[in-house]
UniProtKB/TrEMBL annotation, chain B:
InterPro entries per record: Bact_solute-bd_prot1, SBP
Segment forming the signal sequence: 1-23
Keywords: Cell membrane, Lipoprotein, Membrane, Palmitate, Signal
Phylogenetic placement of the source organism: Bacteria, Bacillati, Bacillota, Clostridia, Lachnospirales
Pfam entry (one): SBP_bac_1
Name of protein: ABC transporter substrate-binding protein
Length: 359, 458
């Protein structure tokens, strides 16, 4: 018993608070000390396995958690507060309750801007399709595979603003895109104004995000494909499976978690597109997405409260969309090793039928 | 079991810590640092005589990113000949108008900045040092230009220079197109643009649409310059009924905006406004590839320096004639302001530097602007405007000092802030369906709603 008191005191002296004491000492270490019968020094205590392990966990988590709290959660909390005020950046604020939220729903421009997200959602499907295609090809042994991977991943490393400027010149009349198309036999007169023509400018802008994010998706897919057990391929080739069958029955089922994850990221990303339209067109000529309009309200019209409310409504929408996606995923595809709910039900039905038939 | 409880304890503590940190943040409302009481005003300081042994390190936030490492360095060197112990560090901000507002709210941003338009007049005293009584300062500086950042008789800012709002044009292109006299009415202007289109390869009017901020030049014409009335900004625009309607005599906001609408509609501007390039446009204008651009007088020197044909660049007023007379609105550019939370020494040092910048540096002249100092000469670039009356908008009375900003923000028309109106004009005139009348009705409606929300009834 004496040793226990000693350790208690030692810990207190070292200035460690009761949280540590209760988690580290009461739960495991005391017994050890008591059994050994000798009082260990603080250094030894702190070096002992479990304490050490937890200290490592805490110290490692401290930095990212602090950053997360300081730069994400506190500003977010503040923003929730802002959304209930009629306020500018500088000057008095007035509490208006739900007024800002009501205004977001009654304004025409806020929700009609969300329609533009459809362009980006469609683009994200193209993006995932392309990424999967290249990932499948490049995960097999290809000549110069590393170079291709590098080239395709490279756009993701370029800052979004720079990408915007690149494409601004890319789409300028008579510049890169037009020149290339002219080599292919088009006349300049036949070509549209890529950013001015309201029937295609959203497609032009959405295409830039395919260019930027395709490589990143591809790398994730390659990683997942690499982790597929290679004996499966061998078995498949013995069974005489061709390339498509291998893709359909081995690769896709094995990496479905990553596919779904990428889909969720792409679709939530599509709802909150900001950089491409902001930099390339400034949101003009009908390319102003929800975020661009939010930015305009906050910075040009100084309606900070309204813009905060818009941000929170978008957050809620993204949560809902993600939840729906998650549900669909579980129902049709299953998560990880878990079978899809639909297949489980089918199996149950089948089982029932068999039992009934057996009777 | 043990593991589970441990985990739980850990989660609970963590979340508690998170909540606490949030609460702590909420509770510890930042006490505003005690303001130094300043009894020094800028008019009392004698440059080179007072405070010459003052020691201070100043931080200066500026929008002039292009000259931070060149002209401003020379300024510091010359200033330090008088005040050797005052160090100044410039920080150039590219997206100045947006960034500075956010940084101001922290109170700890530096010592001198260019006051952004987003600060309401009655808030000036909370952020900036009193530079002096407006009356006393008016003996040295043009009182008209001080109005913008004075509140209840106290001045908080001094303009780095003043601009005239006109149209910068290429004389050689105009000559080649066969235009003898500078156009004086919207019709003549559109006719001249048509001539440029027919007779030369130049783009008659380059909108610089893509840059965004360039659009506000059109907003700057609508008050004093388009009416000749220094009270129009307050009486006609802020408080007036349906200010955007056609006045029928080719003046006022309608005439300005309609000129832009027609120019775009008739194909007298560049083909694709979405891909215009501001930096490139200066060189194009200098080379004679552009006929004219709607920009304040600050742009003249930049365009002259962008190529070899500096002599071709001219400046004219916006082509509106009110009862046989032409006016040009003029007003202060960005004003220098001093952080009222800085230490007293820093504030005094900052005052010395601002005084030196305004009176001795020659900054305004080198930028092609008017100096705020009474008696300073017109810069050469503006000599063509001799004989044209400059109109400086009269300020709103103190009780309505924020009224324009409030109506402007509520209506989201962003006059002089975002250029939302000219932007919309170009969009609709390029490929849209709305006519000028539709647009005018829409703006009037939004303006009136915003006016009503701020207690203005007709």
């Amino acid at each position: 018993m004496g040793s226990r008191i000693n350790t208690k005191e030692a810990v207190k002296k070292a200035g460690i608070k009761s949280f540590f004491y209760s988690t580290f000492i009461r739960k495991g270490e005391c017994g050890q000390f008591m059994n050994s019968g000798k009082s260990k020094s603080f250094i030894e205590w702190i070096k002992s396995g479990k304490v050490n392990q937890r200290l490592v966990i805490i110290t490692f988590m401290l930095v990212p958690l602090t950053l997360l709290i300081v730069f994400t959660y506190i500003p977010f909390g503040k923003m929730i507060g802002f959304s209930f005020y009629d306020m500018k950046y500088i000057g008095d604020r007035e509490f208006v309750g739900m007024q800002n939220y009501i205004e977001v729903f009654t304004r025409k421009d806020c929700f009609s801007a969300l329609k533009l997200s459809l362009y980006y959602i469609v683009a994200s499907f193209f993006q995932l399709g392309l990424a999967l295609y290249f990932a499948t090809i490049l995960s097999a042994k290809t000549k110069g595979g590393g170079v291709f991977k590098g080239f395709m991943f490279f756009p993701y490393l370029v800052c979004g603003i720079a990408v915007g400027f690149i494409f601004k010149f890319f789409y300028t009349r008579g510049f890169v895109l037009d020149t290339v198309l002219q080599w292919c036999g088009f006349n300049l007169e036949q070509l549209p104004y890529w950013l001015k023509d309201t029937s295609i400018n959203n497609i032009s802008v959405a295409a830039t995000s395919i260019w930027r994010y395709m490589g990143q998706n591809m790398v994730l897919f390659i990683g997942a494909i690499m982790s597929v057990d290679s004996t499966l391929y061998e078995a498949a080739s013995i069974d005489g499976a061709n390339g498509w069958q291998r893709f359909r029955y081995i690769i896709v089922p094995s990496i479905k978690t990553i596919i779904v994850l990428n889909m969720i990221l792409s679709i939530t990303g599509s709802l909150s597109v900001f950089e491409p339209p902001y930099v390339i067109t400034g949101g003009n000529f009908g390319t102003g997405t929800y975020f661009v309009i939010m930015n305009k309200l906050a910075h040009e019209s100084q309606k900070v409260g309204l813009a905060s409310a818009m941000a929170i409504i978008l957050l809620v929408m993204i949560i809902i969309v993600t939840a729906i996606q998650k549900f669909i995923e579980r129902y049709y595809f299953g998560v990880g090793d878990q079978e899809a709910i639909r297949t489980i039900r089918k199996q149950k039905k089948l089982l029932k039928k068999e039992q009934e038939g057996g009777r | 079991m043990k593991k589970a409880t441990l985990k739980k304890a850990f989660t609970v503590t963590l979340s508690a810590a998170m909540v606490l940190s949030l609460a702590a943040c909420g509770n510890s409302k930042k006490e505003k640092p005690e303001k130094e009481v300043m009894d020094v005003t800028i008019d009392q300081i004698k440059l080179g005589e007072d405070y010459t042994d003052l020691k201070a390190d100043l931080k200066f936030l500026t929008h002039k990113t292009d000259v931070v490492d060149t002209t401003f360095k020379q300024y510091i060197e010359e200033f330090q000949k008088l005040y050797p112990n005052i160090n100044i560090e410039y920080e150039g901000i590219t997206d100045y108008a947006n960034d500075i507002t956010t940084r101001l709210t922290t109170g700890d941003w530096g010592d001198i900045c260019m006051i952004p338009t987003t600060v309401d007049k009655d808030e000036l005293g909370n952020y900036f040092t009193k530079l002096g009584d407006k009356k006393a300062l008016s003996d040295i500086y043009e009182g008209k230009f001080l109005e913008a950042y004075s509140y209840e008789g106290t001045s908080y800012g001094i303009p780095s220079m003043a601009n005239v709002q006109g149209v910068v044009y290429n004389k050689a292109v105009f000559e080649k197109a066969g235009i003898k006299d500078v156009p004086k009415t919207p019709e003549e202007f559109l006719g001249a643009l048509q001539k440029i289109k027919d007779n030369t390869d130049a783009i008659p009017l380059y909108t610089n649409f893509a840059a965004g901020w360039t659009m506000t030049a059109w907003d700057a014409y609508i008050d004093g310059g388009a009416t000749g009335d220094p009270d129009f900004a307050y009486e006609g625009l802020t408080k007036g009924e349906n200010p955007f309607s056609d006045r029928g005599d080719g003046t006022g906001p309608y005439a300005v905006y309609d000129t832009l609408y027609e120019a775009v509609k008739q194909g007298l501007t560049e083909e694709d406004p979405t891909t215009t390039d501001w930096e490139g446009s200066k060189g194009m204008m200098n080379k004679g590839e552009i006929g004219c651009m709607a920009l304040g007088s600050w742009s003249i020197t930049q365009i002259q320096q962008a190529g070899e044909n500096a002599d071709d660049i001219g400046y004219m007023t916006f082509p509106i004639t009110v009862e046989g007379k032409q006016y040009a609105s003029a007003g202060g550019d960005y004003n220098y302001g001093i952080n009222c939370n800085s230490s007293k020494d820093n504030q005094i040092a900052a005052m010395c530097y601002i005084k030196w910048l305004v009176e001795k540096s020659g900054f305004a002249q080198s930028e092609g602007g008017l100096s705020a100092v009474i008696g300073d000469e017109y810069p050469e670039a503006l000599s063509a405007l001799d004989g044209i009356e400059l109109v400086v908008n009269n300020p709103a009375p103190d009780e309505d000092a924020n009224l324009f900003n409030d109506v402007n923000n509520d209506s989201e028309l962003g006059i002089n802030v975002s250029g939302a109106i000219p932007t919309e004009i170009i969009e609709e005139a390029t490929g849209g369906t709305k006519t000028m009348d539709d647009l005018v009705n829409e703006w009037n409606e939004r303006w009136t709603t915003a006016q009503e929300a701020n207690g203005i009834t007709h």
